[in-house]
């Protein structure tokens, strides 16, 4: 099946005349699976990789081209912030299906600006160390929900590095800093138990510190280690070798960050709901462009869905990528899974439809994500008749008959897609705010109800969804 190019909703950083998706007029009727699938899809780029590469490109020794990057609210906010600080970022024609490539040219970093973080953890945690290299004051704020997300670790880390921070003791947004153009660096100890993004944010900018950085994590547990491995990998590709002499310690030398043209991998975490659909509806779903080797946490879906009853296969297509296919078997099995990280909402949704118990552990840090994901998942699944218990560091999900109802997204993109998964099997599920998926996948509703997935939509659901989520093709 051919994959058509889908126009991606754009935001202010891309120009005043860019198309903007229509506002949602009411709850979104989640399509009900009407038969087995035979779908092949290609997804936009990884948010985690796009925003890491934007930071590194902004600090590099020359222009970098990011091919097939993600265009979403999170990446738009990052672009807007970097432009405000003096980085030139141009949209150039590329071969990707989901928007232009990005040409990033570093410039002198200047303060005297305000940064809107939205609800993007990568913006609020990656930008402050970079902004501290600018000359002058930089103010940070974001969405109301962003003001509840942990920031104290990063703010205290920058203070320890000599950066003047003013947060009125909140340890959260809003705050401001005063950049002097340089940071000495040296040795630093932090407790990053609340988010691995504190580690990544410091490592990404550390090569520009005068003395580099030796960073030590002091907490008992460090979540989302694959995201730190991703950061180290992106640095290495630009000539900065990070040493890890022992777990929880990273040594970054003062070094030149090389300019680099890079292909952004598709977002494998965003692939999760589409692959899960094969277990719910039957048939098969193939995601093309799946990298043979990757540091993305979403790669774990191959093992997870195999353990939950799917048949998973991978067919290389050349150049280090291939087609990943998941086929349903008519059974969904519960699992015991530790450290599912950002995949937890997707796994919890399919677990609510399983025939046996699922236990998720090692995800206490999800309470500090876009919303308290553990509480939100338990609340919403139980409201539909489920049996979910929130534990100290995870969830226990037991089989129970589910019914329709309103699913609240809490302005959290992964909560919205979790509701859509349940809606495949349960009639009458409605998502209160499907447009929140624009955070990392503006095309979600269009893909979910589009040609490749047309078989899952009931006639009523398809009609209602089309009125809200249809995206127009760009003018020739």
Beta-strand segment tally: 22
Query: What percent of the residues sit in helical stretches (DSSP H or I)?
Result: 25-40%
Distance between the termini: 22 Å
Q: How would you sum up the major sheet?
A: 4 strands, mixed
Whole-number tally of structural domains: 2
Task: Provide a brief overview of the structure.
The protein is α/β, with parallel strands linked by helices and 476 residues long.
List the helices and strands and how they pair.
Blueprint: E1 28-29, E2 37-41, H1 47-58, E3 64-67, H2 73-84, E4 88-92, E5 101-105, E6 113-116, H3 121-131, E7 135-141, H4 152-160, E8 164-166, E9 175-180, E10 186-190, H5 197-205, E11 213-217, H6 225-237, E12 249-252, E13 262-263, H7 268-281, E14 283-291, H8 301-307, E15 311-318, E16 321-327, E17 336-338, H9 344-351, E18 358-361, H10 373-383, E19 387-390, E20 395-398, E21 405-407, H11 413-425, E22 429-431, H12 444-448, H13 459-469
Parallel strand pairs: 2-14, 3-13, 6-7, 10-11, 17-18, 21-22
Antiparallel strand pairs: 1-22, 3-5, 4-5, 7-9, 8-9, 11-12, 14-16, 15-16, 18-20, 19-20
What labels describe this entry?
476 residues, alpha/beta, UDP-n-acetylglucosamine1-carboxyvinyl-transferase, Chain, 4-stranded mixed sheet, 28% helix, globular
If you had to describe this structure to a student in words, what would you say it looks like?
By secondary structure, the chain is of the alpha/beta class. The chain folds into two domains: 26-43 and 266-469, Alpha-beta prism (UDP-n-acetylglucosamine1-carboxyvinyl-transferase, Chain), CATH 3.65.10; 47-175 and 182-254, Alpha-beta prism (UDP-n-acetylglucosamine1-carboxyvinyl-transferase, Chain), CATH 3.65.10.10. The protein has 13 helices and 22 strands. It has a four-stranded mixed β-sheet with strand order 2-14-16-15, with helices on one face. β21, α11 (413-425) and β22 (429-431) form a beta-alpha-beta unit. α1 packs parallel to α3 (121-131), α1 packs across α6 (225-237) and α5 runs parallel beside α6 (225-237). The longest helix has 14 residues, at 268-281. The protein is globular. It starts with 27 loop residues before the first strand and ends in a 7-residue tail after the last helix.
